[in-house]
Design goal:
Helix content: 55-70%
Low-confidence stretches: 268-272
Structural class: mainly alpha
Order of helices and strands: HHHHHHHHHHHHHHHH
Radius of gyration: 24 Å
Length: 311
């Protein structure tokens, strides 16, 4: 095909594209005359991205803390993007399912290893000073992480162990929300009253969470797995990918996070360190207490009984 023929073929495709949406291709082509070439910094929005770091103190290591958490939120967004592709894929094929799931796991693997930046990249003395200016904010308030959980599994697997027997798929989303495992970390264990941390979190995101819970009720990762033909559900590579994701999110990543928190918050080693949001962070974070498992049917009774005990 000559260059002229290639140009004609492209123009024909452009005509078909804009005809399909009742637009004039000539108008869009003319617009190219006035558009400026794209640059890396315009495409990535580098200047805007690098202007989002605002310290509350004069301590240099606070900048590390801010940027690290912003990177985490960007990775969470990447994870949610991949999850959406799985959940909304019609007639999903096993190769697509497995490949997208492994992408998500690699993102969490990266998040797990990145904790070394937090663990060894800040002076404890500086952290203990600037963290007082962060109260009552807490990583507990990462809304994207909650959305990842809702996208991963049935709500029953996110319910506080103490209340699971009273909840089923017919339970209202509002009632289920009030009994999610992380609710306990935001309440006074003596009075049951919600902390300011939790109240503000819910004021900002509760409607988003309720909507997401409903949206992914039948299309979360576990439900998509159960909708596959039985032969595909028994595929060893897919099962391994499901288990790897489950273990990485609910044990490996959590434990690495916990170990870093212990270094900075619980310096005394006697358990009296308090998180900025006031949550009972050890029982909230450690997997052996809540045994958060996205896909319990893919684990043996012994594995579930020992969940989080070997780390």
């Amino acid at each position: 095909m000559t260059s002229t023929d290639s140009t004609k073929a492209i123009l024909k495709e452009i005509d078909l594209k804009y005809d399909a949406i009742n637009q004039k291709s000539e108008t869009h082509l003319e617009g190219l005359l006035w558009s400026k070439p794209i640059t890396y910094w315009d495409y990535i929005q580098t200047d805007a991205l690098l202007s989002l770091q605002t310290q509350r103190t004069t301590l240099p290591d606070e900048m590390v803390f801010i940027m690290y958490h912003q990177v985490n939120e960007l990775i969470f967004k990447m994870i949610l993007w991949e999850m959406q592709q799985i959940s909304y894929c019609q007639d999903i094929k096993i190769d697509f399912f497995t490949e997208r799931l492994m992408r998500i796991s690699r993102y969490f693997d990266m998040l797990t290893t990145s904790f070394e930046i937090m663990e060894n990249g800040m002076e404890v003395e500086q952290y203990m000073k600037f963290r007082t200016t962060l109260t009552p904010a807490s990583g507990f308030q990462s809304a994207q992480y909650r959305l990842i959980e809702f996208c991963s599994t049935d709500l029953i697997n996110l319910i506080d162990y103490r209340f699971r027997s009273s909840i089923n798929r017919d339970t209202s989303y509002e009632f289920a929300f009030e009994h999610l495992y992380w609710q306990a970390a935001g309440k006074d264990y003596k009075t049951g009253e919600k902390s300011f941390l939790l109240e503000e979190f819910e004021r900002k995101y509760k409607n988003v969470f309720l909507s997401h819970m409903q949206e992914y009720n039948t299309i979360n990762i576990w439900q998509k797995f159960k909708q596959l033909p039985l032969e595909d559900q028994n595929n060893s590579e897919l099962i391994q990918a499901m288990r790897h994701y489950d273990y990485t999110v609910n044990i490996t990543w959590v434990m690495q996070h916990l170990n870093v928190a212990i270094k900075y918050i619980d310096q005394s080693g006697i358990g009296d360190g308090e998180a900025t949001g006031g949550s009972d962070w050890k029982k909230y974070m450690h997997p052996k207490y809540q045994r958060r498992i996205f896909f319990p049917e893919l684990w043996s009774a012994e594995e579930i009984a020992q969940w989080g005990e070997t780390k």
